[in-house]
Amino acid sequence: MPNSLPQRSRTMPGQGKATPNRSLERGVAILRAFRAGSSMLGNSEIAERTGLSRSTVSRLTQTLVETGMLDYIPQARAYRLGVPVLSMAHAMRDSSQVLKVATPMMVDVAMRHRINVGLAVADGDEMVYLESFRYNRRQSLRTVVTGQRIPMALTSLGRAHLSTLSPDDFARMMASFASKGGGRGWRELRKAIEAAVESVHRHGYCAASWQPQVVALATPMRFDGYAVHVLNVSVSGQQDTAAAQSALAGPLMSLAAAIEHGMRGVQW
């Protein structure tokens, strides 16, 4: 299925109205087609994931190989991400003042309260983990790593992010969710998203349980010069949502306040 995401606003801070470069946008779409578990992709798979024509994919993958962003494996007639992608990811993490401020605080809260703590930002209709510290007395059913993507519509992280959108952007995201995974369950999902957004506006956080025996709370944070960051805490076990909210809301909101305080005066 083509990865047709709602378009970002064309007006970027400090740029005025930018004229989009379609070739660049398509090249980025090709790079985004590579995910964990999809180490190698051929032109047909890339075309399917991006919605681009085979001829366009063939032309752009050749350019991406020449620039080192993709490696071509002749034996498999497929591509994989090149080393420069990793170096850019490292540069991104190293330049983030938010991570430098938040990381030691997140570790402290995870260990002190024996809970999981994560930090993520939005990319299209998914959330991408920047950092995650998992505290589990038993083996977790899943492992969260830096760069992992999770669905926006189903998670506390994603719903907290949705609460920060303008009415028009929120409507576009909801229309995208409905078109991709609507069906019979869309009405219930929409109600859950709207309730979560209302919870953020009223209480500062929202709760969700999209994985078995995992309840998570999340709150959005805004910093000058950065996209909205969303902080979450979660517990694994038999606790119901109400009990988990009672236990997690205090640590979550205190941690968010501490990070926001730590970011004051930081040169980004």
TrEMBL record:
It comes from the Bacteria. Residues 1-22 are annotated as: Disordered. SUPFAM superfamilies: GAF domain-like, Winged helix' DNA-binding domain. Residues 84-268 form the IclR-ED domain. Keywords: DNA-binding, Transcription, Transcription regulation. InterPro entries: GAF-like_dom_sf, HTH_MetabolicPath_Reg, Tscrpt_reg_IclR_C, Tscrpt_reg_IclR_N, WH-like_DNA-bd_sf, WH_DNA-bd_sf. Residues 21-83 form the HTH iclR-type domain. PANTHER family: HELIX-TURN-HELIX TRANSCRIPTIONAL REGULATOR, ICLR FAMILY, TRANSCRIPTIONAL REGULATORY PROTEIN. This is IclR family transcriptional regulator. It comes from Cupriavidus gilardii.
